[in-house]
Amino acid sequence: MKALTATQVARQFSRVLDSLEQGGEEVVVLRNNQPVARLVPGAARMTALEALADLYRTLPDADGAAWLEDLRSADRPAARELYDPWA
Q1: 39: which strand partners?
Q2: Cα 81 vs. chain centroid, distance in angstroms?
Q3: Nearest Cα to 56, choosing from 34, 24, 86?
Q4: Contact, 58 vs 64, CB < 8 A?
Q5: What domains appear along the chain, each with residue ranges and CATH number?
Q6: 3-state class of 17 per DSSP?
Q7: Labelling 1: which of 21, 47, 64, 86 has CA 20 to 30 A away?
Q8: How many CA atoms lie within 13 A of 14 on its CB side?
Q9: Residues 25-61: tens digit of each pLDDT
Q10: How buried is residue 20: exposed, middle or buried, by Cβ count under 10 Å (0-12/13-18/19+)?
Q11: Are 26 and 18 in contact (CB under 8 A)?
Q12: Phi/psi at 55 (5° precision)
């Protein structure tokens, strides 16, 4: 945890945000040597593919196969290009 004065944070705001984003380290803002605020990194971002990566582990095999078959039978070009991740 890094402690910076309010003046330091104000003067180096972009640098502080960059260190939060890249380093993930918490910053305590001090005024008159007393902590007045805490800056913490935001929640990690995830793509839809990353979020759904474990989905196949939660579906029973029969349900997964039925879901895949429903997708393939849909009248969409993208559905025909799907492959079976459970195979």
Answers
A1: 27
A2: 28
A3: 86
A4: no
A5: 2-39 (3.40.1620), 48-80 (no CATH)
A6: helix
A7: 47
A8: 0
A9: 899 999 999 999 999 998 877 787 777 777 767 778 8
A10: middle
A11: no
A12: -60, -40
DSSP class of 14: H
Rounded Cα distance between 34 and 37, Å, is: 9
- The alpha-carbon radius of gyration of the chain (Å, integer) is 24
- pLDDT per residue as tens digits for the range 56-86: 677 788 887 887 788 777 766 655 566 677 7
Query: Which amino acid makes up residue 54?
Result: D
Residue carrying the six token digits 């989905």: 55
Strands 34-39 and 27-31: antiparallel
Cβ contact 27:38 at 8 Å = yes
